[in-house]
Design goal:
The chain has 151 residues and is mainly α. The chain has helices spanning 18-29, 35-42, 46-53, 56-88, 92-105.
Length: 151
């Protein structure tokens, strides 16, 4: 609790200065690779920027700016990438995976088959070859399905 009897985190943060916001934007967009470059772009001293970035209001501003960028531009880019991969990926596995993801995001999910084993519809077949059978002429299947537990 602070002097106003409010929890410290509920206190309204002051907005960051225009110069600090400009420096943060330069770092987020890649125009600046270092804090020194960002400070130069914003027209401020590097040490002043370093101090400003340590303040809670700067952290909050960075999070807000990232959310804003990802929420709009990032969503559009992710959508375009998914569409491009679904149509033009060389791998059918990639195309199928993207299609399943898009369907799942939109609420379409395949029903799982319920089986008696614990795999929830997943069955496993293992083909084992004897060490001396290099050509694979002996293709006997060995059932490794787990036995049901006796109740």
């Amino acid at each position: 609790m602070n002097k106003t009897n409010l929890p410290a985190d509920s206190k309204k943060l002051r907005p960051v200065s225009t110069k600090t916001r400009t420096a943060i934007d330069a770092l987020l967009t890649g125009r600046a690779k270092t804090q020194g470059e960002a400070a130069e772009i914003a027209g401020m001293d590097r040490t002043a920027l370093v101090r400003a970035l340590k303040k809670p209001n700067a952290t909050s501003a960075i999070n807000d700016m990232i959310r804003e960028r990802v929420g709009t531009y990032g969503f559009l880019m992710a959508s375009a990438t998914a569409e491009r991969l679904m149509q033009h990926a060389a791998s059918e596995y990639v195309q199928a995976d993207i299609a399943k993801t898009i369907l799942a995001v939109n609420g379409v999910r395949p029903a799982l088959e319920r089986s008696q084993n614990a795999g929830q519809g997943i069955s496993l077949t293992i083909v084992m070859r004897r060490p001396g059978d290099a050509l694979g002429t002996d293709t006997r299947m060995i059932d490794v399905t787990p036995a049901e537990a006796a109740e």
